[in-house]
């Protein structure tokens, strides 16, 4: 009898061990800078549809925390199952640790699934891949369009009209400064925000020129790009950006000041609509977004047009090569980018969809609907926002910082970007 009890206990122990292992395999880990409250809604919706999979999410502020955490995890071989990515330079840094997802997407959505992704997003999904590599290493969740947001209440109180010319922009900045407000907050310690503003400027002088420069088809020292770099310096010298911008961060500092009504303008993007879902007392004008609207950078040179829409993939996700968990991880990624998880993010107005056929649902004001419709109309014609090579993006970041600080002349700064581009292209 005792022997039978011993065998039974052993079998039970084995079953419990197997169940524990199975449960561990069904738990996936996700890292990104995606808003934690919104991601939790996406996770809850996913787990309701897939109760056998547990998702553990770790949020990081994008710069520098997330970038630093990814580098450390990649170096130690401890990346999570799913990682948030931007296309081009960031995705390429981790391409060797990522599983191509072409076959999984075709199985999930059919052979023509790419046609449902907006054109600028499709272009960005393979940015920086080695020659002949047609794999996708990230799946886009959301799109964005870059713009200048402004505080409608401050503009009304100070008698400021939406700037149509560069002189208008300087005059608006002067009135805001004299009124005790920050004119246009620039987190110039963050390379990403500097890149965004430079792209707005460069595409005024020649739409698509940065893509040509990245591809080696146009030198970075082309007159249009030199003029764009001079205009970038002018935003500091002419008082459009705040004093001390070179040491400032867009998040959390700039965003919080903008929320609090202390900033007149800020170069952000369509993702700022999510502020309408944050309840008071954040500020009296943030809730429901009634206090905000947007415009595109006015022409900085006579004869130019206002900046065209610039954008593409806001955030995408990649599968790391954690083979044992990739079935469950892909199931989550698919729902997050084109399923129940995406719908929750859109309902929170986190940003625009990357796949066509989706729209936010729920309690959304007419003003937000109107702004969202403007963004969606501009998205299909957006110029590319991303950089294919990490080295080129870093070189441009350094050039922008040097010119802003006055330590580099525009043409010399751009020459260093051209050299980085030639080196990157030669290594492919």
TrEMBL record:
Superkingdom of this protein's organism: Bacteria
Keyword Methyltransferase attached: no
Keyword set, alphabetical order: Periplasm, Plasmid, Signal
Protein's organism: Rhizobium leguminosarum bv. trifolii (strain WSM2304)
Protein family: Belongs to the bacterial solute-binding protein 1 family.
Cell compartment(s), UniProt: Periplasm
Coiled coil: none
Signal peptide: 1-23
Protein name: Extracellular solute-binding protein family 1
